[in-house]
Amino acid sequence: MKSEFEMTGLGKLAYFLGMEILRTSKGLILHQTKYATEILKRFNMLDCNSATTPTYINIRNEVKEKEESVDPTLFRKLIGSLRYLCQNRPDIRYSVEMVSKFMSNPLKTHFLVVKRILRYINGTLHHGILFSTGKRFEQLNMISYSDANWCGHKIDRRSTIVFVFILQGALISLSFKK
Q1: Residue 56: CB partners within 8 Å, gap ≥ 6?
Q2: How far apart are CA 86 and CA 90, in angstroms?
Q3: 122 CB-side CA count, 13 A
Q4: What is the mean pLDDT of the chain?
Q5: What's the burial of 178, exposed, middle or buried (CB within 10 Å: 0-12/13-18/19+)?
Q6: What's the CA gap between 55 and 105, in Å, rounded?
Q7: Domain boundaries in the chain?
Q8: pLDDT on residue 65
Q9: Where are the beta strands (DSSP E) in 63-141?
Q10: Confidence at residue 60, expressed as pLDDT on a 0 to 100 scale
Q11: What CA–CA distance (Å, rounded) separates 69 from 19?
Q12: Among 94, 99, 147, 168, fewest CB within 10 Å belongs to which?
């Protein structure tokens, strides 16, 4: 390609579009530590206490009539930042999808869930996806999982279905459908 196009060799890829690539003896780790730190700084959550889970247990989608609303612009900025972070953080994707439904009219409860996600990210800044290079590809190993919460949404009584596909120990596809 260098004979046809003017090119410059920059070495091995280490950072691209907010994603960092770390080469280890086990394989390539794709993570967004720098981007996650920037999110925490932007929303003044860098010094917060960390959480062990990305969301509260048994959180419901019900809306209380007399609950205080929050700034929708700030809420949308938070959700947009978190959605980009979800590309290689499947552990927060479900929680982010759940609060994304309330971008048109965010309430204080929804904002507290988003803050919980940020607290979880603060405790798991260096998490990412490992693409293993040590395994032989003579025998491909694919694992799939699915789950559903039948009529789990209290308002419209619809179900949420989840599909997860893992190839050679690395997550390759994750889908949530209502």
Answers
A1: 113, 116
A2: 6
A3: 18
A4: 83
A5: exposed
A6: 20
A7: 17-138
A8: 65
A9: 128-132
A10: 57
A11: 34
A12: 147
Structure tokens, 62: 């019900």
Between CA 36 and CA 39 the distance in angstroms is: 5
Q: DSSP letter at 107?
A: B
Q: List the structure tokens of 80.
A: 């947009």
* CA-closest candidate to residue 30, choices 104, 127, 97, 99: 127
Residue 1 scores a pLDDT above 80: no
Instruction: Give me 34's structure tokens.
Output: 């720098």
How far, in Å, CA of 146 to CA of 118, rounded? 26
Tell me the pTM.
Answer: 0.76
How do the residues of the chain divide into helix, strand and coil, expressed in percent and rounded to 5?
Answer: 30, 25, 45
Q: How many residues does the chain have?
A: 178
Tokens of 85: 């972070």
Q: Tell me the residue type at 82.
A: L
